[in-house]
Amino acid sequence: MTMKSNMKNIFARLKSGKNVFMVCLSLIVLGLVSGFIVFETTKASVTLVLDGEKKPVKTHANTVEELLQEQEVKLADYDYISHDLSEQVDAGDEIEWKPAFQVTLTMNGKEQQVWSTKDTVKELLKDENIEVNEHDELSVSMDEQLTEGMTIAVDEAFQVAINDGGQPDHVWTTSTTVAGFLEQQNIQLGELDRVEPGKDEEVKANSEINVIRVEKVTDVVEESINYNTVTKKDSSMQKGKKEIVAFGEKGKQEKHYEVVLENGKEVSRELKKTEVVKNSSDQIVAVGTQVIIQTASKSSSSSASNVNTSEKSSEKTTKKASEKTSKPSEPSSDGRVLNVSSTAYTANCAGCSGITSTGVNLKANPNAKVIAVDPSVIPLGSKVHVEGYGTAIAADTGGAIKGNKIDVFFPSKSAAYAWGNKSVKITILN
After folding, report:
1. How far is residue 176's CA from residue 50's CA, in Å, rounded to a whole number?
2. Is 39 strand, coil or helix?
3. Mean pLDDT of the region 352-380
4. Shortest CA distance to 89 belongs to which of 68, 109, 120, 107?
5. DSSP category for residue 230
């Protein structure tokens, strides 16, 4: 065999070996590709929602826990996971995970840290079993988005009794002090007002709060000033007799009081000043000082034995003559007695001036004892005792008062009506 033929045999063998290698290599590559295709095609397609963002995932994980580990999701204690960790993963599953965050929740002033994965304040309160009623106070809106580090304050309302200026009521409040309650209820205190209990006192359910409205007012009271009675000696009048020369008139004064009212009721008053509006006028009474000495002339007689008898007889005759010559209109020392018809009147009638015919102001002297008379029967100025009325002054006249008739003055119509029309006995004292 030649060298040329040997070389051909060698190349033929090499060519045959190369084909075998290529075949083997092809089979290996095909196996790998087929395996990869089988591996990929056998993965389960699921949707993983991570903190609100959807992420399609293909996985060979058998459980939710394996899936989270595969996706390098670190699950904390308070995190939200929509499926149980041991639950099997199936194609088409949507698995949600939310990381928990902290918020500050204050209930009636007591603060606590709360972990939550909720979206809104309303969902958080529901999750914490907190019910917010109509009168409760919430620091944020129910629909506000929940965020990490947020502070939510809930103050539960309770009822208290309030009496403002004497007006009782029951109201809801969340304030824990009297001052806070007044501010919340928009109750303003005046300069003198006060509240019980005090502003710094604690308020709780069924507390009673009293607002006392205090005011100071000035009360002006008009009072009468009594007149004085002045006596003047009159030598032209018989001793023992009296006559009112000028009737007294009462004065007027105003007393200014500072009155303290609490809830409209007077609790104290203090006199601040007194002002005289009208001075009183003295009543002047004339008192008689004249002493009348009666004398009688003695009759002479020639017989000595009849002297005493004659003198006594002369004294009696002179005394009788003296009595007969006295004025018929003047009463005796014991007073002249008459039976008269009487009526009554008052100074407060329509159109009445209240001034008597002798100038007495009956309106200014409502307690004066005055009668209207017929001056031809009872002289004006006479002091007259009227049965059932008392001692009065004949200081007035009237068109219907004629003869034995008098009209008795009373300060009120009711008293005048009560007197009526009747016969009475009068005594003219002077």
Report:
1. 44
2. helix
3. 91
4. 68
5. E
C-alpha separations of 272 from 217, 258, 261, 337, 347 in Å: 12, 7, 16, 54, 35
pLDDT at 29: 60
What is the phi/psi pair of residue 86, to 5°? -90, 0
β-pairing verdict for 336-345 and 422-428? antiparallel
H helix runs in 171-259, sequence order: 178-184
Strand (E) or helix (H) holding 121: helix 121-127
Read off the pLDDT of residues 76-88 as tens digits, 9 standing for 90 and up.
Answer: 888 898 888 889 9
* Cβ neighbours, 10 Å, residue 213: 17
Distance between CA atoms of residues 131 and 37, nearest Å: 57
The pLDDT of 90-109, averaged and rounded, is: 90
For 114-130, the pLDDT digits (tens) are: 999 888 999 999 988 99
Name the nearest CA neighbour of 216 among 196, 236, 238, 193: 193
Does this model's pTM top 0.90? no
Q: How far is CA 360 from the centre of its chain?
A: 50
Q: Quick check: 117 and 79 in contact, CB under 8 A?
A: yes
Tokens standing for residue 299: 């009759």
Q: Are 93 and 63 in contact (CB under 8 A)?
A: no
Q: Which domains does the chain have, with CATH numbers?
A: 44-98 (3.10.20.30), 101-155 (3.10.20.30), 158-212 (3.10.20), 217-290 (2.20.230.10), 336-428 (2.40.40.10)
Contact (CB, 8 A) for 88 and 109: no
In contact, 58 and 81? CB cutoff 8 Å: no
pLDDT interval class at 368 (50, 70, 90): very high
Residue 58 and residue 45 in contact, taking contact as beta carbons nearer than 8 Å: yes
Distant-in-sequence, close-in-space partners of 38: CB < 8 Å, separation ≥ 6: none
Q: Scan for tokens 């009296």, then name that residue.
A: 242
Write down the pLDDT at residue 289: 86
Q: Flag whether pLDDT at 329 surpasses 70.
A: no
One DSSP character per residue, 150-178 reads -EEEEE--EEEEEEETTEEEEEEE--SBH
Which residue from 139, 286, 265 is spatially nearest to 214, judged by alpha carbons?
A: 265
- CA–CA separation, 39 and 20 (whole Å): 28
